[in-house]
């Protein structure tokens, strides 16, 4: 159940539920999803609508994100501080590795996609900049979990794996905490993670950490493509290309810490 004791926390907690995959919510639907009182949820949604954070469809009575957030988002200099510096590197990696590449960060115990370049092969992968995916089922996420400080990593794993209904996306998804701890230890040793059809059948992902010049992991860089093209004996080549890209990003961002 979502803790809605603080007005500020409540506002942002509610906003997190408006995603690319689920852009609209009705009051009853959202209150059931978060386990909160319907009248309380309605009051906060109405208040956010009044100041433009949310819009309400007068016909369906469903809420979606409003233009005020777009306005506020444009004041954030993330693009000039990070993405504009790193995107050319991402394009170079995609060209060399000939697969779709992503940069992701860990936010609210999930992977937030902050940039993407599609594969030159033309195969489209169902990910979107600004969207979230589960950390336990993705290469990006496993890398980011592996490089968390010990205490934070333990707390994060406790949260993820103590959920009543932790989702298994495929038969390969890791849903056992002990298994994941072993996996993360191996990632730290190898300095890369592999998602072997753990999030989507037929899709393989190789991911590595991106360090800033203070040797802090600020993001993760990955290459994703169909299992038919990802060969075991080619993994090191993918890793080498990704590491070259991560080094180029490190040189451009200096001591910048994304989130």
Which key features would you list for this structure?
259 residues; alpha+beta; Arc Repressor Mutant, subunit A; Beta-Lactamase; 2 domains; six-stranded antiparallel β-sheet; two-stranded antiparallel ribbon; 9 helices; 8 strands; 19% strand; globular
Describe the protein's architecture and organization.
The chain folds into two domains: 7-72, Arc Repressor Mutant, subunit A (Orthogonal Bundle); 78-253, Beta-Lactamase (2-Layer Sandwich), CATH 3.30.450. The mean pLDDT is 87. The protein is globular and about 55 Å long. Helix content is 42%, strand content 19%. The protein is of the alpha+beta class and 259 residues long. The relative contact order is 0.11. Strand 7 and strand 8 (217-226) form a beta hairpin.
């Amino acid at each position: 159940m979502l803790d809605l004791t603080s007005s500020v926390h409540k506002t942002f907690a509610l906003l997190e539920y408006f995603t690319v995959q689920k852009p609209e919510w009705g009051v009853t639907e959202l209150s059931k999803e978060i386990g909160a009182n319907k009248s309380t949820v309605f009051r906060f949604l109405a208040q956010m609508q009044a100041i433009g954070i949310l819009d309400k469809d007068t016909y369906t009575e469903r809420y979606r994100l409003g233009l005020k957030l777009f306005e506020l988002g444009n004041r954030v200099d993330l693009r000039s501080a990070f993405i504009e510096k790193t995107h050319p590197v991402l394009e170079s990696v995609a060209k060399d590795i000939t697969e779709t590449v992503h940069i992701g960060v860990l936010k609210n115990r999930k992977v937030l996609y902050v940039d993407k370049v599609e594969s030159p092969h033309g195969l489209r992968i169902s990910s979107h900049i600004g969207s979230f995916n589960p950390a336990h089922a993705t290469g990006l996420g496993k890398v980011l979990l592996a490089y968390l400080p010990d205490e934070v990593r333990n707390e994060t794993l406790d949260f993820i794996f103590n959920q009543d209904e932790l989702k298994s996306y495929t038969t390969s998804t890791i849903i056992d905490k002990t298994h994941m701890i072993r996996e993360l230890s191996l990632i730290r040793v190898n300095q890369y993670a592999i998602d072997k059809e753990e999030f989507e059948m037929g899709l393989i992902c190789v991911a590595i950490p991106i360090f800033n010049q203070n040797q802090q992991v600020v993001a993760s860089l990955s290459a994703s493509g169909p299992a038919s093209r990802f060969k075991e004996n080619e993994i090191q080549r993918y890793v080498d290309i990704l590491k070259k890209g991560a080094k180029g990003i490190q040189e451009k961002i200096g001591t910048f810490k994304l989130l």
